[in-house]
Design brief:
Metallo-B-lactamas, Metallo-beta-lactamase domain-containing protein 1, 15 strands, RibonucZ/Hydroxyglut_hydro, globular, alpha+beta, Metallo-beta-lactamase, Chain A, MBLAC1
Amino acid sequence: MNPENKKCDIIVLFDGYSVNSEQGSQSNCTCTLIKGNKNVIVDTMTAWDGPKLEKAIEENGLKCSDIDYVVCTHGHSDHIGCNYLFQNAIHIVGRCVSKKDVYYNFDFAAGKPYLIDVNIRVIPTPGHTLQDVSVLVSTDKGLYAITGDLFENKDDENLWYRLEVDDAELQRKYRSEMLRHADFIIPGHGPMFPAKYKYDQITI
């Protein structure tokens, strides 16, 4: 097998959640591992989650030093907190691509996908913030979209636009596009679900 065509395994290490509390809300993001020709972590939870994230990666046969890319779908603190664990990786935080003190030029604003390998690409999906990105992974089972807070969870039709968002119309547009093209959605604060679960619903 050509190593560039190595199949990807998608492993949701932790399902995200968000619930109201007396203090405000209690939330953490979904954290996903992609194992393949390139190993990728998408969204690294809060800064207090380092030990459990490191353990989960080791339980899946890798070390933090084996991660080639860290992708944070946007820059909110519950999505970037453990980036420090991955010293060997290229970091994509929203539309910012860097390694150590080197910041690379890449024109996400033009709608270009950032190709990690033949099966993994990062695309701009603004709305929740104007810097949001999603990760698309092609597999034998279909196209997986790791979307961060483009989708809060599978039942968020009456919720997502009531949250603090930078551009609700843009978010609505990219939600619709993702549901048309992806087979599975991994949302920012809930378990993975099949895209067709939501596709026929009126408000997307």
